[in-house]
Amino acid sequence: MAQLSDLYPINSILMKIVSVFFSLVLLSVTAKAQVKKVLADKIVATVGDKFILRSDIDNSIADYKRQAQGQEGVTIPSVCQIMEGQLIRKALVLQAEKDSIIVTEDEIQNAIDSRIRQFLQQFGSKEVLEEVAGRSIFQLKDDFKILIKEQKLADEMQQKIVDKVKITPTEVRAFYNQIPIDSLPLYESEVQVLELVMHPKANRDIEEYVIQQLMDYRRQIEAGINKFDQLVKLYSEDPSSKENLGQFSLNRNERNFDPAFMAGSFRLKEGQISAPIKSKFGYHLIQLISRTGDDAVVKHILRIPPIAADEINETKTFLDSIRKDIIANKYSFGEAVNKHSDDEGSKFTGGAVTGRDGSTYVNYDMLPDKDMVVLLKSMKPGDVSVPQVYVDDRGRKTVRLVYFRDRTEPHKENLKEDYNRIAARALEVKKAKMLEAWFNEHITNYYVNIDEDYQSCSEIKEWTKVSNTLIKQKTY
Fold first, then answer.
1. Dihedral class, residue 172 (left if φ above 0, else alpha if ψ from -120 to 50, else beta)
2. pTM
3. Which of 2, 83, 196, 311 has a CB 3.0–4.6 Å from the CB of 459, allowing a cystine?
């Protein structure tokens, strides 16, 4: 068996292989709906009572290539690596079933609904999705069910195998010491930054003016003077409107959307347009396009009540008083964030700006906006900025305090400054070895059959060895 850690980090080894499954199902049913098959499919491997088809391998390769289009430096897994991933998944599913690991119907259904919503977002409507797939939403959900259950069982089994794997400081040090000095990564200067964000509130007169504008839009649509899409283009202040014309796919159980927006959407009948609805983003005019059970497709126009100078100055004055209390050590910056920040996500991180890997140390180009980059150039570690006015990613005038906690200098990776990074990598390698050892021990417990077209794959030599042994036993 190929070194799993050489192929993928342990936490993504399965995801790298199964992340394409849902799109492959759609790709497969689309192909069935649009073209006649020339070659019959073929079983190319078997693990226990689980089969791997040639189309599983081919579709995975095709999907990786599709996802990599326009990207530089992307490595497409080989056919042999895809085969190994499929074998791994099947074996994990078998073991999960043997160990009586349970995946509930609710978990499966929620995952199916989530994937259908992504497809609806991608294709624009239920009708277009069904036309492209050549199948109804209900048929697609039925197609997904087995694949999703297998993915979840495999994930649960993998987690069970590596769940108790821990890493000690001694092991981290040993892992670091075996890395050749010339292979140690170089890190640019990084900063640790926290922010306390507040959104100035528009006065009631301005809010009433925006509400009346939205009411006028609704009258125009209902009178046939204008179409909803045209008004979205002209007036909506949702940044995503240019790409999706204000359209979203919703699920009643999803928690990512504003509760008021969700409640207003699901009160509508198909084709109906709401009265103005207030959310944390502004005021919305919502039209229900279609609804199937807990799933709905809506379009909306967002108007953000403009903030006057008085409201901005009032917020700045309030934040300045908080800044003075922080400097006077009356409470910490994190405590101030938890008490006053309007950014809900900040309350889980104490206001820290984090990278994609969750690290609180980030490069300057990973900071949320250029205004913060400019601000930090005039600050030094330990400083708390005066209140700064900026425009957030939704076009709202916002005021914040910025705490410049720390800055690292450009350096080669070392245990003192990068211990957490090194420990995370060391743990991943240890888990990969644990998983590989588990497979080496358990492969012989399964009935394995590998098609001759894949016998030369070095990545699956242990699987092939078991397969050929079983074939010889049958011969005698």
1. alpha
2. 0.63
3. 2
pLDDT over 90 (residue 193): yes
Residues facing 277 on adjacent strands: 284
**Identity of the amino acid at 293:** G
Nearest Cα neighbor of 5 from 420, 435, 347 is 435
Can you say how many angstroms the Cα of residue 29 is from the centroid of all Cα atoms in its chain? 25
**Cβ proximity of 63 and 20 under 8 Å:** yes
Q: Which residue has the tokens 């959310």?
A: 279
Closest by CA to 260, choosing from 239, 275, 247, is 275
Report the candidate in 41, 89, 82, 53 with the shortest Cα–Cα distance to residue 65.
82
Residue 275: C-alpha distances to residues 239, 278, 303, 341 (Å): 22, 10, 13, 30
Residue-by-residue DSSP string for 96-115: HHHTT----HHHHHHHHHHH
Other beta carbons within 10 Å of 348: 10
- Residue 166: alpha-carbon gap to chain centroid: 26
pLDDT at 230 over 50: yes
Among candidates 437, 414, 451, which has minimal Cα distance to 86?
A: 451
Q: What gap in Å lies between CA 318 and CA 70, rounded to an integer?
A: 47
β-sheet bridge partners, residue 288? 298
- DSSP reduced 3-state for 193: strand
Q: Which residues pair with 450 in a beta bridge?
A: 45
The pLDDT, as a whole number, for residue 40 is: 58
Q: What domains lie within the chain, and their CATH numbers? A: 4-169+425-475 (1.10.4030), 189-201+308-409 (3.10.50.40), 204-303 (3.10.50.40)
Q: Which residues of 411-424 are buried (b: 16+ CB within 10 A; e: fewer)?
A: bebeeebbeeebbb
Q: What percent of the chain has pLDDT over 70?
A: 91
Handedness of CA 350, 353, 358, 362 (dihedral sign): negative
Measured in Å, how far apart are the chain's first and last C-alpha atoms? Answer: 27
Of 450, 472, 445, which is closest to residue 461 (Cα–Cα)? 450
Using DSSP's 3-state secondary structure scheme, residue 59 falls into helix
Per-residue model confidence as pLDDT tens digits over 94-128: 999 999 999 888 888 888 887 887 777 777 677 78
Q: Which stretches does DSSP call E strand in 23-139?
A: 43-47, 50-53
Burial tier of 52 (Cβ tally within 10 Å: 0-12, 13-18, 19+): buried
Q: How confident is the prediction for the chain on average, in pLDDT? A: 85
